[in-house]
Amino acid sequence: MPGPPGSTLGGMTPSDVLLLAWRGLSRRLVRTLLTALGLAVAVAGMVVFLSLGEGIRQVFTAQFRSVGPDVQLTLDGAQSGLLPPPNLPDSVVARVRAAAAPLGAVQVTPAVTLLKQSLDPAQSAVYYGLPADQGIGALFGGLRAARGRVLTAADEGRDVAVLGRSAAHNAGVDVGGRVDVLGTRVTVIGVLEGGHGLNDTFTFLPLDTLQRLAGTPGRVSLVAVTLRDPGRAPQVAATLARQLELEGQTRGDVLAVVNRALRVTDAARVGLSVVALIVGGLAVANTVAMGVFERIREFGTLRAIGARPATLRAVVLTEALLLALAAGAAGVLLGMAGNAGVNAYTRSLAGIDAAALTPVLALTALGVSGLLGVLAALVPAHTAARLSVVEALRHA
C-alpha cells in the first residue's frame, strides 16, 4: 500500500514510528524504568572508572609541567618508578656536579625518596629528604609555609619535618606537634600552604635525617640538576647518563612513564566497564524482546494495513534507542554525582580532584549506550520484521 506524501516507512512517517516506540515503552512503565536504571548504573560505572584515569592524568600532567628538576639521574631510571629507592652512593653527587657544570647546571640537588604504604590511605606517606641548606625550593618551587617555617641549613641532621597541608591534616598534627616517620617521632616545624596538588601530601625532612631514619646513610635516591636553559634538558640528560653511566630523565620522560602506567590501568577500567555494559545490554534485549512478544497482534494489524517489515524493524530499534539514550543520559548524571563524591574524598585526603569528566568522555558514554541499545535490539527487531500477517493475527 503506498503511503501518503512524506511517508517513508510503509504509510508511516518518522514521527509515527517515534510515537509507536514511545507507546511500546510506556505500556510496561515499571519494567522500562527498571531496565533503564540497570543500564544507567552500568553507564555511571563506566563514567566514574574512566573519569578516574582522566583526572589522575591531569593531576600528574600539571604536577610535572610545573615542578621537579630539569634533569634527574637515577640508577634504574623508569624501572624505579616515580619514587626511586636510595641505591646511589653519596659520592656520585660530586661527579654529577663536575660533569653538569660545563653543561649549564646552576644547581645539583641529591634527594632521598621513600613511600610509606598503608591499607588506610590517610596513613600512607611520601617522604622527601633534601639538603636543608638548599631547602624545599630546590625541587619544589613556589611552596611556602602557611604556619611555622621551611627547612634551613641549621636543620640538617635534626629530627624535624615540614608537612604539606594534606599530610598534616591526615596525621592530625600542626606546628610544634610530633609525627611518626619510620618509627621515630620528629617535630613538625612547618605546614605548607595548600593548593599544590600531590605536593600537599609530602613530608619533607633534612637529607641526613631521612638517610639515618631509613637506615641508608651515605645513599641517595636521585640527583636532580637544575639548568640555566631548561630547553636543553634532553641533551643534558643524555650526556650525563652517558658520562656517568646512570639513567637520565627529564620532566617529559617522567610524565611519559606516568602515562604508560595509566594506560595499563585504563585497560583494566575499560574491561570492568565492558562487563557492566554487557549486563545492561542484556537487560535492554530482554525488555525489547518481551515488548515484541506482547505486541504480536498489534504488529500483525500494522502489517495488515500496509506497514512494511522495515517499519516494524524501525519501531523496535527506535524503542531500544530511546531507552538506551535515556539510560545513558541518566548514567552520565549519576557518574557526575559519583565523581563529585570521589573528588570530595580525594580532596580531603590529598588535595586533588582524582576524577575528571570531559565532554568527550560524556559524549562517548552516550554514544556507547545508544549503540549498545541498538545492538541489543537487532534480534527482536528482526523477529518483528519477519512476522506474517496471518501468524500475527492468530496470536491470542
Offer a quick outline of the entry.
By secondary structure, the protein is α+β, with helices and mostly antiparallel strands.
Mean pLDDT value: 85
Q: Assign an overall shape.
A: elongated
Cα distance, first to last residue?
26 Å
* H and E string: HHEEHEEEEHEEEHEEHEHHHHH
Helical residues, percent? 40-55%
Instruction: Supply the number of helical segments.
Output: 11
Task: Describe this entry's structure for a reader.
The protein contains 11 helices and 12 strands. With 396 residues, the protein is an alpha+beta fold. It folds into 2 domains: 14-60 and 259-394, no CATH class; 76-245, no CATH class. α2 (29-66) packs antiparallel against α10 and α7 (251-294) runs parallel beside α10 (359-385). Mean pLDDT is 85; it is low at 1-8.
Key features of this structure:
transmembrane; Macrolide_Exporter_MacB; 10-stranded mixed beta sheet; ABC transporter permease; alpha+beta; disordered N terminus; elongated
